[in-house]
Specification:
About 10% of the residues lie in helices and about 35% in strands. By secondary structure, it is mainly beta. The two termini are about 25 Å apart.
Length: about 100
């Protein structure tokens, strides 16, 4: 698992699918939250790993978004949903190499 080595950065990719041994799973740290994305529902081992990463990184919550590759569809069910921990605020800040970005 990649970890942010720079304390000025709290937005980065932790898991990049098959390259990291997790077929079709992409995990990003976005501030105090994780965003897990996959074209399939999360498996038991993936959910367990999410809980471990959340605790190890001392994060507030984990979101899951089902990927819908190639269709160009926008569906409400494709929006990220909380799967562990607390919900994110409507807007929050992340840091990347010292630069601050406001996300909604």
């Amino acid at each position: 698992m990649r970890a942010g080595r720079d304390p000025e950065t709290n937005a980065y990719r932790l898991i990049h699918g098959e390259a990291d041994g997790w077929d079709d799973l992409y995990v990003d740290r976005i501030g105090d939250f994780l965003l897990m994305q996959s074209p399939r529902p999360l498996t038991g081992p993936q959910i367990d790993a999410a809980k471990e990463w959340k605790n190890k990184l001392n994060l507030n919550g984990v979101y899951y978004k089902q990927l819908n590759r190639g269709t160009g569809e926008y569906e409400e069910k494709r929006l990220p949903a909380t799967c562990n921990g607390s919900r994110s605020p409507d807007t929050f800040e992340v840091r990347e190499n010292g630069a601050i970005f406001r996300l909604a």
